[in-house]
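Supplementary Methods S3. Input chains for the assembly prediction are listed below.
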Amino acid sequence: MAKQAALPDVDAHAGENRVFATQVCVRFGDCDPAGIVFYPRYFEMVNNLVEDWCAQGLGMSFREMHLERGLGLPTVQIDTSFVTPSELGEVLQAELRVLKLGGASVALAVRLAGPDGEDRVRASLVLVMMHLKERRAVRIPDALRARMAAFASAE
Amino acid sequence: MAKQAALPDVDAHAGENRVFATQVCVRFGDCDPAGIVFYPRYFEMVNNLVEDWCAQGLGMSFREMHLERGLGLPTVQIDTSFVTPSELGEVLQAELRVLKLGGASVALAVRLAGPDGEDRVRASLVLVMMHLKERRAVRIPDALRARMAAFASAE
Amino acid sequence: MAKQAALPDVDAHAGENRVFATQVCVRFGDCDPAGIVFYPRYFEMVNNLVEDWCAQGLGMSFREMHLERGLGLPTVQIDTSFVTPSELGEVLQAELRVLKLGGASVALAVRLAGPDGEDRVRASLVLVMMHLKERRAVRIPDALRARMAAFASAE
Amino acid sequence: MAKQAALPDVDAHAGENRVFATQVCVRFGDCDPAGIVFYPRYFEMVNNLVEDWCAQGLGMSFREMHLERGLGLPTVQIDTSFVTPSELGEVLQAELRVLKLGGASVALAVRLAGPDGEDRVRASLVLVMMHLKERRAVRIPDALRARMAAFASAE
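Predicted structure tokens for the full assembly:
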């Protein structure tokens, strides 16, 4: 973690704080005729969470990643359980943990919880760092990898 | 406005503060292959702005409106200019003003501005209060109307 | 299968034809700044496939199910692999098979293939029949179950 | 129209056939908690109509336009009336006419009609041909312009 200590701005998340969390409001446009979240919309919430994690938790926004560095971080696998429906107007807690850090890939656990703290959605996903033009997997840059490691979780 | 003075919680917006404003982040999922916002997504931003205005500016969330009161506030007309494209990662300023307050309808002006303060999107829209089950227009409740009036703008 | 023979209109799919298939065009609005399908959009394609299967393959549209019968068929689990990216303008082959038919639930395998016949997306999902108002699982009606069985696959 | 006669493949649309039409199914994911189309979704239908018009009516797909020619056709203005709500499962008729053909721009009228032939949505929109990299308007290529002219409408 010595390396990480040299990185600016995100050290508050290092070490002990291993969960990246945000809040998500269930919008009118997220809900279906049954009045609950239309499940493809949950994946936009998950992608937004990953986007926020990169920008705020890892210090590299999708904009920087895609436009300046020519890299992408596509999701190649996602397994998802929709435990309980979510309703219009609810504010969900979204949490992200790193399960496994590979050479070019990172496995994440995501949880969306209701106002009562109970599970709404649980997902495990695998992202792979890609060189966008060459369309091949590339090793996650060391500085980014070190920051990701701070969100590693035993669970 | 005497009536409005009796309403709780939202009087900070009454009178002088006639613009309801929020911020909107341009997400990866909002952008098209040209790297700019896919225009149907702007309308979700506009709808989210109206939703936030109802909940935070008028004190009646879409949830309360739809589920408890059986009312809806559908958009029946919207004229929109896309002045300049918006890019991934930009934070837009979203502003809402009341242009005209009818019996069952309210006309709004919405503006999305870039980080430089310049226009990105300008829209004028008309919403109509509807009884959801009977599918007919109904007069906007007086308390709600009074709160809407606080956002009326000369412009 | 004697029971199924008595059902009207869908017998062309009975028995030997165990794959429900449609085609999906990759739209401009489905693609992200990297020019490939934004993965939450794949889940809309999957949901549309299930919707078409119910209407055309099983003879009970979502409209009939939701509005006339008060039933829903929410997805409670979906495991998905994004094998190869899909690009703007491609026409994908979407295929659905029944993996397992429970009391209130049905497990499906979905495959989206590219113009070359290779996998783009593979998903296995579990749907549960719900009584919408009471929000509880209910047994899949026998007629519907018999029709679902025609799409059962050994694979 | 002599010029147009020389263009391959799309002459069936030339002259008399001045309306480009497709059909759109109202999907579960298009509908909101009130059971009707969530209006931002209508704009995806409009964009899909324009996309189909380019590919099938004009003989230049968005894929060819964007990826091979480096051109885009963004919508810069759209005025829309939502006349009557559309419901889950309805099949809408989508129609497109050319109102005005400028140097770099084309003005279109779009109509979505219900199964009864009545208006659901009416929109007039302006598209501008852009050079994607240079982000500036460019003259619509003559061959494309000639094909567009075949959809010009007096109305």
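Residues 1-14 of chain B have pLDDT under 50 and may be disordered. Residues 51 and 62 of chain B are 6 Å apart (CA to CA).
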